Amino acid sequence: MTAELRWVGKNIARRDAFEKATGSAKFASDMFPENLLYVFTLRSRYPHAIIRRIDVSKAEKMPGVVGVYTHRDIPNNRFGVFHKDRPVLCDDRVRYIGDPVALVAAESREEGQEALNAIEVVYEPLPVVTDPVEAMGPSTIKIHDHGNICRQTRITRGDVEDGLSKSDTVVENTYRTPAQIHAYLETEAGISYIDEQGRITVVAGGQSPYRDHHEIVSTLNLPPEKVRVIIPHVGGAFGGKDDISVQIHLALVTMKTGRPARLVWTREESTIAGTKRHPSIVKMRTGASKDGVLLANDVEIIYDTGAYAGLGPAVLDVAIENCNGPYKIPNIDIKAWLVYTNNHFASAFRGFGAPQVMFAMEQQMDQLAEKLGLDPIEFRLRNALRRGDVAVFGNKLETSVGIVQCLEKARQHPLWRERQAAKQEKTLPWIRRGVGVAAAIKGYTLGALPDKGRVAIELRMDGGFTVKGSFTEIGQGVVQAIAQLAAELLHTSLDKIEVVFADTGKTPDTSVTSASRQLFLAGNALKDAVAKMGERIKSAAKILLRREVESLTLSEEHVVVDKGEMLDYRVVARVLEESGLGREVVGEFDVPRVDPIPGSLEIPHLFYMFGVALAAVEVNTMTGAVNVTHIVNIADVGKVVNPQTLTGQLEGAAAQAAGYALFEDAKIEDGILKTTNLSTYLIPSIKDVGVIEAVPVEDHEEAGPLGAKGIGEIGFIPVAPAIANAVYDAVGVRPLALPMTPEKVYWLIKRRI
Amino acid sequence: MGGTRILREFRFRLNGEEVSVKAPPAYTLLEALRYVMHLTGTKDGCSTGDCGACTVLLDGRAVHSCLTLIAQVEGREVITVEGVGENIPAAYAEEGAVQCGYCTPGLVTASAALLKQNPKPTVDEIKEALRGNLCRCTGYVKIIKAVQRASGDV
Amino acid sequence: MLALGDVEVYSPRTVGEALEILRRRAGSLRVIAGGTDLVVQLKTGAARWRELLNIYGLDELRYIKYVDGEVKIGALTDFTTIHESPIVKSTAPVLAQAAFEIGSYQIMNKASIGGNIVNASPAADSLPALYVLEAVLKLETLDGFRTVPVKEFYKGYKMLDMRSDELLTEVSYRALGDGWVGEFFKHGLRRGDAIAVVNGAVLLKWNSVDGVVEDARVALGAVAPTVVRAVECEKMLRGSRLDEKTIRECSEAVLTSISPIDDVRGSAAYRREMCVNYVYMTLWSLARRLGM
Description:
The complex is a heterotrimer of chains A (753), B (154) and C (292).
Chain A: H1 17-21, E1 37-43, E2 49-55, H2 57-60, E3 65-69, E4 93-94, E5 100-106, H3 109-117, E6 120-125, H4 132-135, E7 149-157, H5 160-166, E8 169-177, E9 189-194, E10 200-204, H6 209-220, E11 227-230, H7 247-257, E12 261-264, H8 267-273, E13 280-288, E14 294-306, H9 312-322, E15 331-340, H10 354-372, H11 376-383, H12 403-412, H13 414-417, H14 419-424, E16 431-443, E17 452-459, E18 465-469, H15 478-489, E19 497-501, H16 518-545, E20 552-554, E21 558-561, E22 565-568, H17 569-579, E23 584-590, E24 608-620, E25 626-636, H18 643-662, E26 668-669, E27 672-673, E28 691-697, H19 719-731, H20 742-752
Parallel strand pairs in A: 1-12, 10-11, 14-15, 18-19, 25-28
Antiparallel strand pairs in A: 1-5, 2-4, 2-6, 3-5, 7-15, 8-13, 9-10, 9-12, 13-14, 16-24, 17-18, 17-23, 20-21, 21-22, 24-25, 26-27
Chain B: E1 8-14, E2 17-23, H1 29-36, E3 55-58, E4 61-64, E5 77-79, H2 87-94, H3 104-117, H4 123-129, H5 141-150
Parallel strand pairs in B: 1-5
Antiparallel strand pairs in B: 1-2, 3-4, 3-5
Helix pairs in contact in B: 2-5
Chain C: E1 8-10, H1 15-25, E2 29-32, H2 38-44, E3 51-54, E4 64-67, E5 70-74, H3 79-84, H4 86-91, H5 93-101, H6 105-110, H7 113-119, H8 126-132, E6 136-141, E7 144-149, H9 150-153, E8 154-156, E9 159-160, E10 167-174, E11 180-187, E12 198-207, E13 212-221, E14 228-229, H10 231-237, H11 244-253, H12 268-289
Parallel strand pairs in C: 1-3, 2-3
Antiparallel strand pairs in C: 4-5, 5-10, 6-7, 6-10, 8-9, 11-12, 12-13, 13-14
C-alpha cells in the first residue's frame, strides 16, 4: 500500500457502541410489538423416544390460548443445510432432550405457561445412544433411518505406515473434548409480524437472513416474496445462531394467527436445546525424524453431532483440513466419522471443528519436541508452512501464510524468553508455574464449496452513500469494518457512510456470517460495488457534461472529472434518479476456489488464517486449580482494519477458549444435560482471566480487501492447547481431555505421584 | 391481559422521577421494567442472578433486578442504565469495550455503582466490583480500560 | 422461567405486622428477605408458593450492635454491610471474610444473613463462620422469642428447628477476645463467583507465651447434610505447637467428621481431598501469621 490510508487501520470507536452502552440499541429480545402473542415451546421429556400421541385439545381450550401447534401444522417438516433431517416440530420421534414437540401462542405469559402444562404427549422411550463409538456399532438402535454414521470419509497422502516406521520418534495418544455451550448473553430470541407490505416478517437473532428465509419458505410452503427476515443487533452468536432456532416457529404463529408473536428462549432452554460444539475423540500417531522433521500423522477423528447433522458435515471437513496443524507433513492418513447420538445437537461454534483437533495436534507437537530434545517453538518453525509450500493435501499455498511471523513473535516475547526464570520466583509451596505455546491454522471462507456474496451501494439524495449487505452484526464489528472500508474505497468521510445490514427486504445476499469470512467476502464485493458505482457516476457525468468522460476520481466533496470539473454528489444523485439509471449498484464477489479433493466437501481452502498463543499458568497442586495469568494471542490477520475491533476479537477469543480449556464442563449423562444454567456451566468472569495481550501480525493478503483476512476464529484455536502445554510444563502431567477442571487436574497430579 | 393475575400499584423513584407502575407483586423488577414499562435497556441474560446483565442501582447499590421483586422497590430509588448518564457509556464506547453489547448496560450500571463509592479504583478493585458481570465477547480487557477511562485515569 | 402473576405478596412495615401475618397465614406462605435464593427457586418452579411475606422493608431488622461483649446482627442485614462493618471486622474477621465470598456485589448488596441461614444450603458461606463463632439465633413469634445455638438449628439436610409462625430476627455471637486468629476458606470451580465445592472456617486461640494452640474451632461446609464441627481435628489441635506434622495430621483428621456426596460440582472423593487440603492450607497460613 503506497497511499496513506485514512480510515482503514484507524482506531475508531464503533458506531453502534454508544447506543449499545446506553441501552438504547434494540435487540430482538427487546421488541414488544402491539397486540403480541407470547409463544412457548414444549420440548421432549426423553432424550430418545417414539411419539405415540400428541393431544392438544385441553390446551387449545384454555383461557388466553390463541393457538397450539404441532407437526400437523407444518407442510414440509424436514429441513437442514446438509441433510434435511431436522423437524420443525417433532412427529415420529424425539431425538434429544431439547427437541421441540409443540408450540403454544397465548395472550399472556401466565396463560401460555398453563397451556404448555396441559399438552399431553405419550412417549415410548427408546434406548438412549450416548457413546459415539457404540453408536457406530451394528446392533445399536438407529437414530435416523440411514444409520448413525452421518458422514464418514478417509483422506490419505503418501504412505503413513512407511513414514511412521522411518520416524525416530512416534507419539501416540487419544484426546477427548466435551460439548461446549455458546452461552451468549442474549439467548435465542425473536419476534414476528405482518409488515406493511403483507409479508410475514421475522426479526430474530441469527447469522444469515437469507438462509433463515429459505428455511421458513420451504418448510411452511410460503411464497418467497411473502416472507422477510431481519437480523438486528445480536447479543452474541459464535456460531450458535447459525442454525434455525426460533425463526420458523415464529413465522408459523404469525402465519396462522395474523398476529405479532414473541419467542425468547430462557437460559435453561438455550443451554439444553441450543446447538453446541461437537465433542470429540481424536487419536493421533505422529512421527518425526531426529532432525525434528515431521514425517507422518495417522489420525482418527470421531465427532458426536448429536440428534441432527446441522453443519456437522462441514465441521468434520474443517477438522480434517486442520488436524495436521500449520505444518508440512508428507505422509498422512485421516479417518473421520460424524456420528449421531442422543446427547445434544451439535453444529457451528467458533473454530468450527479445528479447536478439537488442534488440542490434540499441538500437544503431539510438544511431546515430540520433548522427546527430540528440541525447543517447542524451534520444532514448530522447522515444520511450519511458508508461502509456496505444498500443504498436506498436495495443495500449494499461493496466498498469505503468516505462521512463521507468528512463531517468531512468540519466540521473542518476554513471556517465552523468561519462562524458566519465572518458575523460580518465590510463591506458596504448592504452586507450580508453567508456560506453553501452541499454533493454529484455519481456512477462512467456505473453501472448495461455492461461496459468493453481493453488496449494494446506494448513492443517497443527500450525497452520502449507503452500503447494504446481509452480513450480521453479532458483536464482531463487521458493520464498522465495512463502513471504514467503504469510506476508504470511496475516498469519502466516515460519517457519509451508512450501513444497512441483514434484511432480506432491503439488502442483497452476502451469504452467511460465519467462517471468519464476512470482512473478506463483503469487503471484496464492496470493492466491486465501488468500481460499479464509479461507472454509474461516470454515466451521470456524461449526462451532466453532455460528453464522453475519460477519467473520474472520487473525493470527499466532489466527483472530479477529466481535467478537473467538479460535480456535486447531490447533483449526480438527482441525475441518476431522474434519468432512470438508478442510484444503486450491486457488487459481487465469487470466492476463488478449487474443486474439493475426493472425500471432502470443502478441502482445500485457498485462504488461511494462522495464529500462535502463549499461555502462562499457575497450578495449585493441592486443589488442581489452574490459574491462567497471562495469554499472548498472536494472529496473522493480513491487514488490521480497526485495531480496537481486531484486538477485541483476539482478547475475547482467548477468554472464551480459556473457558473451554478450564471451566466449561457440559455434563451430559444418559442424554440429559446437568449443567443448565450459568451457575453450573461456568464461563470465565473478569477474575478468571489474567493479562491478555493481542498481537496482530500483518502478512498482506492480496486477494483480501486492502490486504485483510479473516479474524473471528483464529484467536480461539491455539489457546486451549497452549494452556494444556503450560500445565504440562508446570506439573509434568499431560491433560488429554478437556476441560482441565480442578478435579481432573488434581487426580492427574495425584495419580502420577 | 387476562388470567388470574393480581395487579398492584407500586410507587418508587425511577431515574430521578416518581413513577407508579401497575404489576403483579411477584413480578421481578426486571420483568416490570421490560414487560410492563418496555424499558429495555436493562437486559435479561439468565434470570438467576448469575450474569449481571440485569444490574440496576437500588438505593445506590448494584443489585440484580431479576432477583428483586417489584414489591421490594416500593418507596425506594431505582436507577437503570437509562439513568446513569453518558460519561460511563462513552468511556466504554471509546475504549472498544462494546462488542455484541448485551452485557454492557449491566456493566455500565455496576461501574456507576463502583465509581460512586470509589472514584479511582485499582485494577483489582475494578475486578472485584465487576466479578458478577459476565461478558462472552470481550475478554474483559477493554472493560477494565473503560472503567479507568471513566474514572479519569486514562 | 415462570411468570408469577398470580402470587400474592404481603409487605409489612413493622416486625409486629409481619409476625401477625405469619401467625395468620402460617403454612401457606413463605418468607422472602433479600430473595437472592428464593426468587430463583420460585421462578424455576423448584419452590411453589401462592403467598409470599416480603420482609425486605423491615428496616428495624437491619443493624449491627456491640453490647456487653456480644455482637448482635439484625437478620435483614446485607452481606456488604457485614463485610464492611468495623464491629464485625474487629470482633470476627472470619465472618467479614465469609460475607465477601457469598457472591458478587450484586448478591452481597441484597442477600441477608437471615435468608442465608434459613435457606439452609449446606454450602452456605456464612454458616461455617457462624458455627466457629458459636452464634445464637433469635426466633420470634407474636408470643415472644426463643434462642437457638446455630448448630442445633439444623436437624438434617434443609431441616430446621423452626416453626411456621416463627421469624428469624437476629444472629448474635460473643466477640472473640485476644489471642484468636481465624480464616474462612472456600473452594469454587473458578475465581469468579461460584457455589462452594467445599468451604469452612478455622479459629485458633494461640498462647504466644507457651507457643501452643489453646483452643480450636473448625467448621466445614458442603461436605455433609449440614455444616459440621470437625471435632477430632479440633481435639488434635488443642495443645499442639502447629508444626508441619501436626498440621498435616489435624487436616487428615477432618475425614472423620464429613460425609460428602457426588454432585454436579464435584465427586465425594474430590470433596474429601479438598476438605483435608484446605484445612491444611488454612492452618499453614495461620501458622505463618503466628510466626511459626
